[in-house]
């Protein structure tokens, strides 16, 4: 008997396994959309990992190629991740123009390195012998000559690059945005440390006024040998003739590489003619390590081998790309999170429909555990299939991303599809686990139901109590709202702490909404149904009663849409508040009549020469220069922890509304001013001096705090005078330190301005005066606000496109629920058809039910989005987001769009329901 029992159990287990596979085969259509939900989420995760892995491999290859023949890299940058000069190439994210000044360039053919780390990878004895790096952050002419004359050296190349803008003679810009246009020195033949540069047409640049351009840019813009171009950098402008076209490793996207003769680059485009980074080749018989040791012992600069720099740059690139990966994977996880509700709903409905089948199996001796295992096995198959297809779909997604980047000229080199173990394993594991966890509750329900109960007719899930679930949801909502209020209104905590609290509160609110939603849906959905179904009479009433029949199912289906729209609503509110805050700054904080800036789509600064051009324009009164420089006070950066600070050349009161609290704020002397909040938090007192540093180095001097002002978004937390910056970071004669972000232009008395309207003629004259500088935009404050709003909208559009994944998955959930509901109500629909209900009425009934579910989900989602948006905007008020704005039009469109979502989602299930054969359905 024991042996027989054991044999039966094994046979039963095998039979249950076969039953699970046969059930999947028999219910392919039911599970198809569930598989698709898994596919969408895992495709995003797999594609994100493949995309960043491909980019990492490509950049690594470019860096290796760049540094392959470089024996030593000499850098005057004393900071750990130096590479910035008073031209400033690394700027605070979101606040300053980027990649300008004479900067080390991106790795690639004919290019330098943009950031030069310290010799952290150098041997200890070499690091100990290396003198302290100079504070000038430049390699002097004398030291350059001495390096060239060393017996261990064969070649020396300047590795710096300068961001530029190129245009045709008629002023038409060769637009490379968002990729950069870089100007660099040209080396060829025996002079080149990196090896020969291949000129494919024309000749190399040798004289002043010669330039060579990379082949992809020449083809994209129709540039030919002999063409004349205007080239503008932050410090110079020139007219050049294209003498040659060369091959470059960076031949994708919109990148433009302009190469000029090395002497021309040094004389015209390097500040004081002094570079910051050099590539050095070793003489025959000298190893790279020996060369580095000789240079480090002789000169007070950072010295590394090319291999060390290559490794550190690769590590920096990987670190930067990891953010892109995390960002994209996060949206894939959001899609999967929304998909969990679809999966749970699908399996709940399938289990409910198969209760009689399960009862028969239980009566035949199948155990609870075996039934539970059979449903879990179905979930495993769905998860594995969906995840595997998701990995394949991720490969297609990578191709789509590269195609989009190429079409928009994003300038990212195509890295191909890199199928790493992580890109396969992570989406497979996550997809399968999410599917199993989502199906676990329905699986347990299947196993826990007793045979006699399962043989009864009716939907057990619809009649079970919601009291416990509702109480738990109410508690979670109450705690979530309390935590959100504490985070939003707790001024005594740091912004980071408050943001974490609001984030935790968001999780609690979403969880509480999910738990309490069925109880709310029991009352809210019929109310929505009365409004939506009113014009449709009896059909509308049937749809309303159907929606209220199973509040759990209705709420779960709607919640997928709720979650997606809550995120969209919160992001929309943040975006609207950002635009309102920018508009408020320009309306209340900017006094100038015009603001002259570089192009908003590239972050290019205002060229130095444009300052004189504006000042010399008739009708112009005061011109304030708002710039950024690599200096900071007591190591405290003014922008998100970065070692940068603003400076102002001129009297800030001429162009900006400044409310002085103590001392003077006219910046006429060497020193700095700070807003009251910043001064108080750091203990700064007017009249006392504090150390001002150059970047992250100890170099600098003490400068006095001249005065304090009320917090001002136009000036930032603190701002130095021009004299104060130049005391720490001297600039060349006639040049402004760092880079110029904006010119605040005020009309002269009698030309308008202030309370008078400013004549458009003055704006046109300013544009004409700066026309030769190509990049300068002369805008009114209102126009400048509009430009900023466009940039915010571009950022929001990217987020909305990524969040669209969650909305698509939610729509699939509604389709899936309705399709399964049609199968479940087959007899009922057949009876309605038998008593005379027309096909069109059946279709309308299904469609109205979908609309009710979608509108309910949208309303709840909008309310959550508004609440979370308010909390996050309130937390960020101290970071410049001081205006709270609600995107009412967007919210109304979301609610109206939800009805359309319901109509679209119901299309296929409604048609299927309308085609139900009455007699066959009744006989089932």
From TrEMBL:
**Main localization of the protein?**
membrane
Q: Highest taxon of the source?
A: Bacteria
Query: How is it placed in the membrane, per its record?
Result: Multi-pass membrane protein
Amino acid composition bias (Low complexity), ranges on this chain: 119-133
According to the entry, every stretch annotated as the ABC3 transporter permease C-terminal domain falls at 330-446, 801-918
- Give TM regions: 31-51, 323-347, 383-405, 417-441, 466-487, 499-521, 555-576, 798-823, 853-876, 888-911
Could you confirm whether the keyword Calcium appears in this record? no
Biased composition range(s): Polar residues: 92-102
Sequence segments annotated as region (Disordered):
73-140
The UniProt GO MF terms for this protein read: transmembrane transporter activity
MacB-like periplasmic core domain mapped to chain residues: 32-296
List locations, semicolon-separated.
Cell membrane
Which keywords appear in this protein's UniProt record, sorted alphabetically? Cell membrane, Membrane, Transmembrane, Transmembrane helix
Q: List, alphabetically, the InterPro entries matched.
A: ABC3_permease_C (IPR003838), MacB_PCD (IPR025857), Macrolide_Exporter_MacB (IPR050250)
Per the record, its GO cellular-component terms are:
plasma membrane
What protein family is recorded?
Belongs to the ABC-4 integral membrane protein family.
Protein name in UniProt:
ABC transporter permease
State the organism named in the record: Corynebacterium urealyticum
